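Example for tutorial group B:
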């Protein structure tokens, strides 16, 4: 089909112009310099960039001719970037007209092309393996099942690695964790060499940083030995053990076998075929070890160790022209962080790798291989500089939950979110714009709470609790009054009858013990009116009631907490002791909440009579007139009298037992002290309980005198049992008695079941503790869930907690640090360091009523600062709604509203962070160019040159049709002239 005339012209004219520019670049450059470049430099640039005022250390006044500019391609590139970013001219100068700006940039681009073409090709560089590459190369070389040494550079560990599945979509639930701060890992007795230096941006694979000092060389020598000698380096962990280290079968020529095994190993280790001279040298070394008596396996270990310490293993050549093996290594170290596999080496060896179609197919194979995990483990974290999160330490007063778990800080959870986003963009081959404003995120339970709950424990419902307390108190008072009235009616019924029965018993000379039935009742019915009433005993164990006494068979009675101070009190006890473990026990013990106790034990053997206390006091003495069997035949009366000065006196049957003792004042806290009967207390004793029969127990509200004790023990001990009382009642009285007793029992049970008053402070404390425990558990969780981002303020690599935390100080946000991060990481246009003569801004000075933006205003008045701050400040202040740990705030602590508004690149106004991210997306081609430059620098393992700028532009243009999908950018980088270095 023939083209019409207009169509032919449309095709031929641009082509002709391109050919002419290519054939005569010098002439085109000269015209451009005179017509499009020199006038603008003179009108808009020289004023600030001259001999008298060399801003940015650039003197454009020296550029008088086209030749002077062509001689400095870096300067051309810098001018282009400043104008493209609308950084120049500055705000104080008139802006360029759009046509002038377009012509100026086009002329500069043409001059840069000419300048770069006139430059000698970049010299190839040798590049030492960094720790990450060294570890991976060793793992692949030996097919090791574990890392060689601990690798804190690996910030995310994927549990149940989803990359293995080769699915085109990320799972909705993933389990990941950061073990960068954990100790251990790697082969036993193998220590890593020192951490590699980082280049300006943060990449640790740059050739000019990976030097080899004598100390580091020594470390490599020792490391090569430690690896093969580690007890973990064995046939179970080394995949090539049988093929390389195992003794060959009998009858096989060992010399030939060694050469065969070494040839393949050397090819894989040196990443290219080893020549015969190299093979001969290592084979002779290995066979020499065998001749000296080393086993085949140990000799091969020696050979492997020597190979690992060779410069041919430790170094690789980058930028080598027309070297297919260097290209294979460049591909593998970029995508796999390791040496090429045998397929890559085969393609390099037969020359197929230079074929563009084969190269593209190889790139696709490598991207689909699970080893691409190593690219995802290195580039994203270094590009985003996420390692800085590990050192973040927000003020605990402002962010108490960041380090609530000493074993797992919040930063370890935070950095996983942007890494999972990058994984998703890679696996699902999404546009890189999703890195800035995705519609989804991966969040853990902890991060979800961090963003949405304010990370504060829920407040208790004080109104509801107070209402319940009032209702319960009302119920408690009503039941107490019912019990009082019922008891009064019961006393009115039975007391006259009891009095008659008592008179009859007295006349007959009868005696009785205190009535402790039911077992949890104190006897306070005696004649002493100062006895404290209303206390209860609770029974534990096997309890019986016999002959008017409570029988404790390996059991004990325990009081409720006593609401009194035991000082100046008397505790009285009537009992018969049945048995006791002589190593410890307590017929009567006063126990405090803090572990303090006073105890009395009277045993059936003489050496079992003792008293003791937790203050270290103990004494064992015989009882007067006591025989080994006497104790069980007597109804014993004991009394412990606590005096005001802390002295304790023990009475037995009305007589002082031993001397009063005072071995440090015992502390028995009010409302926390209990009384135990029959419970042993010495931890090392074998038995658990005493066995005894308890007749009566009284607690007096004062310290009784010796005379009162004597009267008490010698006085009458009579009571009327319930059986006797019932036999004296007539049928009507019995019925009335039963009704009153049942009513009393029911009311007492109801009163016991009325909930105690809830302490609001204590309730809130319990809620806080549960919340803290939940957050500690959540911080240790590895589960992350894919969720839709309903709140566009969050998500992406900019507005996530990790980035926002690491660009803050421990006490305040740092808009300059945040802006510098964006301009460097997202826009790849880092500002120069501040001039030495400009004092740093102290944001802590000045009025507390000012906002950070207002404090910066004066700093920006300095002409030396204004230019850079005009670029950085809007980016940093756009994020001011996020506090030092990435949580949203509308106001500062001083009550002033946050103002995040600004203008991006002097042309996109925004009022909040959502519009700020939308503005960045309007510049997605600029972001694609910046991202591509970062990725190309990482791939090339060196700083980009002005000539590389054309490769970046070409990659961006080629991937624009895919909306800048991540894998498309990677493929174009690996096929670019900068990467391939093929003529």
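The residue assignment follows.
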């Amino acid at each position: 089909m023939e083209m019409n005339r207009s169509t032919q012209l449309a095709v031929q004219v641009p082509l002709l112009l391109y050919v002419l520019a290519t054939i005569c670049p010098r002439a085109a450059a000269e015209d451009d310099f005179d017509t499009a470049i020199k006038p603008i430099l003179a009108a808009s640039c020289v004023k600030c960039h001259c001999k008298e005022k060399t801003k940015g250390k650039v003197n454009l006044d020296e550029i008088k001719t086209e030749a002077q500019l062509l001689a400095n391609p870096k300067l051309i590139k810098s001018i282009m970037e400043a104008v493209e970013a609308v950084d120049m001219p500055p705000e104080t100068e008139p802006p360029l007209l759009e046509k002038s700006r377009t012509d100026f940039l086009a002329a500069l681009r043409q001059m840069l092309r000419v300048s770069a073409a006139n430059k000698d090709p970049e010299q190839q560089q040798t590049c030492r393996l960094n720790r990450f590459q060294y570890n991976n190369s060793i793992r692949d070389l030996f097919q090791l099942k574990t890392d060689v040494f601990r690798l804190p550079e690996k910030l995310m560990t994927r549990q149940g690695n989803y990359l293995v599945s080769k699915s085109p979509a990320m799972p909705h639930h993933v389990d990941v964790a950061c073990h960068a701060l954990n100790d251990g890992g790697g082969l036993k007795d193998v220590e890593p060499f020192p951490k590699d230096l980082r280049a300006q941006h943060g990449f640790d694979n740059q050739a000019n940083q990976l030097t080899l000092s004598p100390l580091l060389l020594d470390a490599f020598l020792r490391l090569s030995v430690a690896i093969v000698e580690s007890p973990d380096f064995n046939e179970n962990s080394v995949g090539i053990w049988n093929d390389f280290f195992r003794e060959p079968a009998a009858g096989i020529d060992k010399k030939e076998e060694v050469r065969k095994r070494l040839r393949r190993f050397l090819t894989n280790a040196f990443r290219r075929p080893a020549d015969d001279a190299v093979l001969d040298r290592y084979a002779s070394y290995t066979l020499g070890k065998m001749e000296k008596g080393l086993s085949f396996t140990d000799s091969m270990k020696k050979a492997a160790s020597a190979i690992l310490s060779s410069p041919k293993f430790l170094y690789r050549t980058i930028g080598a022209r027309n070297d297919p093996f260097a290209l294979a290594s460049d591909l593998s170290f970029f995508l796999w962080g390791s040496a090429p596999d045998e397929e890559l080496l085969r393609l390099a060896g037969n020359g197929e790798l230079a074929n563009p179609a084969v190269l593209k197919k190889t790139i696709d194979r490598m991207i689909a291989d699970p080893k691409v995990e190593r690219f995802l483990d290195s580039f994203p974290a270094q590009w985003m500089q996420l390692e800085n999160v590990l050192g973040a330490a927000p003020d605990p007063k402002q962010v108490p939950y960041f380090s609530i778990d000493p074993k797992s800080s919040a930063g370890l959870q935070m950095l996983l979110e942007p890494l999972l986003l990058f994984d998703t963009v890679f696996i699902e081959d999404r546009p890189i714009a999703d890195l800035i404003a995705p519609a989804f995120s991966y969040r853990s339970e902890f991060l979800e709470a961090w963003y949405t709950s304010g990370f504060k424990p829920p407040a208790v419902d004080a109104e509801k609790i107070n209402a319940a307390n009032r209702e319960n108190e009302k119920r408690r008072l009503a039941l107490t009054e019912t019990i009082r009235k019922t008891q009064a009616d019961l006393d009115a019924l039975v007391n006259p009858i009891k009095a008659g029965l008592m008179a009859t018993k007295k006349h007959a000379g009868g005696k009785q013990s205190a009535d402790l039935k039911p077992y949890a009742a104190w006897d306070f019915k005696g004649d002493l009116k100062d006895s404290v009433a209303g206390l209860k005993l609770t029974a534990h164990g096997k309890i019986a009631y016999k002959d008017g006494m409570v029988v404790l068979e390996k059991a004990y009675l325990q009081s409720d907490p006593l609401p009194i101070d035991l000082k100046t009190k008397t505790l009285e006890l009537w009992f018969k002791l049945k048995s006791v473990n002589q190593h410890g026990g307590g017929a009567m013990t006063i126990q405090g909440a803090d572990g303090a106790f006073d105890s009395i034990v009277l045993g059936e053997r003489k050496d079992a009579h003792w008293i003791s206390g937790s203050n270290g006091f103990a004494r064992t003495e015989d009882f007067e007139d006591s025989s080994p069997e006497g104790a069980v035949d007597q109804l014993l009366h004991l009394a412990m009298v606590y005096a005001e000065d802390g002295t304790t006196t023990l009475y037995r049957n009305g007589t002082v037992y031993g001397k009063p003792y005072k071995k440090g004042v015992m502390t028995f806290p009010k409302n926390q002290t209990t009384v135990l009967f029959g419970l042993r207390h010495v931890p090392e004793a074998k038995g658990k309980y005493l066995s005894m029969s308890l007749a009566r127990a009284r607690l007096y509200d004062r310290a009784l005198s010796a005379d009162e004790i004597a009267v008490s023990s010698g006085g009458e001990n009579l009571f009327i049992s319930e059986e006797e009382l019932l036999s004296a009642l007539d049928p009507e009285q019995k019925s009335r008695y039963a009704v009153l007793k049942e009513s009393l029992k029911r009311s007492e049970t109801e009163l016991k079941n009325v909930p105690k008053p809830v302490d609001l402070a204590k309730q809130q404390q319990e809620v806080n503790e549960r919340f803290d425990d939940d957050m500690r558990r959540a911080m240790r969780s590895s589960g992350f869930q894919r969720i839709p981002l309903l709140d566009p303020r969050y998500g992406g690599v900019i507005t996530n907690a990790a980035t926002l935390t690491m660009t803050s100080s421990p006490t305040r946000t740092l808009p300059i640090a945040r802006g510098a991060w964006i301009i460097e990481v997202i826009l790849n246009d880092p500002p120069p360091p501040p001039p030495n003569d400009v004092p740093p801004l102290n944001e802590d000075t000045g009025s507390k009523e000012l906002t950070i933006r207002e404090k910066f205003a004066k700093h920006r008045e300095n002409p030396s600062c204004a230019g850079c701050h005009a670029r950085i400040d809007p980016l940093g202040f756009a994020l001011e709604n996020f506090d030092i740990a990435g949580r949203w705030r509308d106001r500062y602590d001083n009550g002033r509203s946050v103002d995040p508004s600004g203008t991006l690149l002097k042309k996109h106004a925004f009022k909040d962070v959502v519009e700020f991210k939308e503005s960045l997306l309007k510049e997605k081609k600029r972001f694609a160019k910046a991202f591509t430059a970062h990725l190309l620098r990482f791939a090339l393992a060196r700083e980009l040159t002005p000539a590389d700028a054309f490769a970046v532009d070409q990659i961006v243009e080629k991937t624009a049709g895919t909306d800048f999908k991540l894998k498309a950018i990677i493929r174009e980088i690996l096929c670019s002239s900068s990467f391939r270095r093929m003529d």
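Residues 445-510+730-777 form one domain. Compare this with the pattern of hydrophobic and polar residues in the output above.
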